[in-house]
Amino acid sequence: MVADGNPVGEALHDAVNAGVDVIITSGGTGISPTDTTPEHTVAVLDYVIPGLADAIRRSGLPKVPTSVLSRGVCGVAGRTLIINLPGSPGGVRDGLGVLADVLDHALEQIAGGDHPR
């Protein structure tokens, strides 16, 4: 656990350099001036996975209309999948529900796996 701001970026760099498979952040994805997790995440990413971030936002929409204000991003840095989840318990629960359906496949693809032919 780290504080908002620069410590997020430092922790992301450290975890990617350590070769972890998945990093899940929670919080700092809103639109307030102190919500900078997406900026720190994008700074380390090689590429984004916009559909995953969209699915996470969409998962909360039926219960929390303001979920569309989340700026969380998802993407890959090296061979590490990075996912920004909202800071609320419900947002984390919804986001993990989305990940439960796609995480294994995403990690296989990042590791160089191919689709069955």
UniProtKB/TrEMBL annotation:
Domain MoaB/Mog as annotated: residue spans: 6-104
Claim: Transferase is one of the keywords in the record: yes
Annotated GO MF terms: molybdopterin adenylyltransferase activity
Entry's EC annotation: 2.7.7.75
Enzyme type, top EC level: transferase
Entry keyword set: Molybdenum cofactor biosynthesis, Nucleotidyltransferase, Transferase
GO biological process: Mo-molybdopterin cofactor biosynthetic process
Entries under NCBIfam families matching the protein: molyb_syn
Protein name (database record): Molybdopterin biosynthesis protein
Organism whose genome encodes this protein: Mycobacterium tuberculosis
Gene that encodes it: mog
